[in-house]
Specification:
CATH topology of the largest domain: Rossmann fold
Distance between the termini: 210 Å
Number of helices: 12
Strand order of the largest sheet: 1-2-3-5-4
Largest sheet: 5 strands, mixed, barrel
CATH superfamily of the largest domain: Succinyl-CoA synthetase domains
Oligomer: single chain
Helix content: 40-55%
């Protein structure tokens, strides 16, 4: 190579030598730095700059290798890449061509979180029997989050749209950095000490695994476990997790989902009211239709027809009753007349005057007592004789 450098070289020849030297001498590199100027192309390749506090190097990760990355790189992520140097002769620049990428320190952090998770699980902090039910009827919702974060804006927007009557109490906390865990735990304790709300949403928007670490700290886990107020953990995006998710009474995949969960009871009640209202309106319409139909029956014409019909029915009944009364009267008169004739004949048969008409005489003494036998009269006694046509006094001579 030194002999080649002594002669006259073209730009292409020099670039070729540099490319050969760099690419053959620098491969299998493991480099850690912060992503800057991240530019994913429409073809699926990633172009970005890898930098530290004093230097920067261009980097590229071609589409054929990006599928192996299990996270979405973004500006500011600290990553470790494995690759080799690549020289781009057309510009006379070099860059590191990345074959793999992982978040810097992610493996150590995940191991730490797994160990901590196992410890709290053994202590029973994640046991379902300690989970408090999420109340359906709420008056005040507390939110422990950054007062300037997008997560809070999403929560407020959703609650305003789905449950405008709910009161929302924002408990501002630092959600990233060394003081974040203490800040979050303090707000949780404050809400419990002062009984500020019916439920707490504790969380933040998405971020790197390092950004979400405060929600996995001991002080936060203990504060959630000790809380008498039910807590929903809403940390990061759906693929993110923190140990607060396991300690809380309910885990929401996102802050927006947490807002939807706490407003669900309000929506259910609203739907019940709407259903009852619809049923009431339907029943009232039916009753009004029925009343209208009945009212039509009592219009002037309908009323006149109804009265005439009633009168006709009553006249018919009255006529039948009169006819039946006459028949009954005749029958009873006939019966009475028959009974009279029978009684008359019986009376005539028993009438002593009828006997007298046949020539018999009724004999009585002075007191009017019947003299039925000659033995009952004495000589000189005055007797009364009653004939059919009059009476006579007689004196008994013998």
């Amino acid at each position: 190579m030194n002999d080649q450098l002594k002669g006259e070289l073209t730009v292409s020849e020099l670039t070729h030598l540099i490319k050969q030297t760099l690419e053959e001498g620098f491969y299998g590199l493991r480099v850690t730095g912060e992503i800057s100027n991240f530019r994913p192309s429409s073809t699926g390749h990633w172009f970005f700059t890898l930098k530290d506090s004093s230097c920067a190097i261009s980097a590229v990760m071609f589409k054929g290798a990006t599928w192996k990355v299990d996270f979405s790189p973004k500006e500011g992520d600290k990553v470790t890449v494995i690759g080799s140097l690549d020289v781009y002769g057309a510009r006379g620049t070099y860059q590191i061509k990345c074959d793999s990428m992982e978040k810097s320190g992610a493996g150590d952090i995940l191991a730490l979180l797994e160990k901590r998770k196992q410890r709290y699980a053994e202590l029973g902090y994640f046991d379902p029997k300690h989970k408090k039910p999420i109340p359906k009827q709420l008056h005040t919702v507390g939110v422990v989050s950054s007062p300037t974060g997008a997560a809070l804006r999403d929560i407020l927007n959703i609650l305003q749209r789905r449950a405008p009557s709910l009161s929302v109490l924002v408990l501002p906390a630092t959600v990233q950095g060394d003081s974040a865990a203490q800040s979050v735990a303090k707000r949780i304790k404050q809400a419990n000490d002062l009984l500020l709300c019916d439920i707490l949403i504790v969380g933040r928007g998405g971020g790197s695994i390092e950004d979400l670490l405060p929600f996995s700290e001991d002080v936060v886990i203990q504060a959630i476990y000790d809380s008498e107020i039910p807590i929903i953990s809403a940390v990061g995006h759906e693929i993110d997790f923190a140990l607060s998710d396991f300690a809380a009474d309910l885990r929401a995949p996102t802050p927006s989902a947490a807002a939807e969960l706490v407003s669900q009871g309000f929506l259910d009640t609203l739907q019940q009211i709407q259903s009852l209202r619809a049923a009431l309106v339907k029943e009232m319409a039916y009753r009004l239709t029925l009343a209208s139909q009945r009212a039509k029956q009592w219009g002037l014409d309908s009323l006149q027809r109804s009265v005439l019909s009633t009168i006709e029915k009553r006249e018919y009944v009255l006529a039948n009753a009169g006819n039946n009364l006459q028949l009954e009267l005749k029958q009873r008169l006939a019966t009475a007349s028959g009974r009279y004739e029978i009684a008359k004949r019986e009376l005539q048969a028993l009438n002593p005057l009828a006997i007298l008409a046949r020539g018999y005489t009724v004999v009585t003494d002075e007191r009017g007592a019947l003299v039925k036998s000659a033995k009952h009269s004495n000589v000189g006694q005055i007797l009364h004789l009653r004939f059919i046509d009059g009476q006579r006094k007689v004196s008994v001579e013998e």
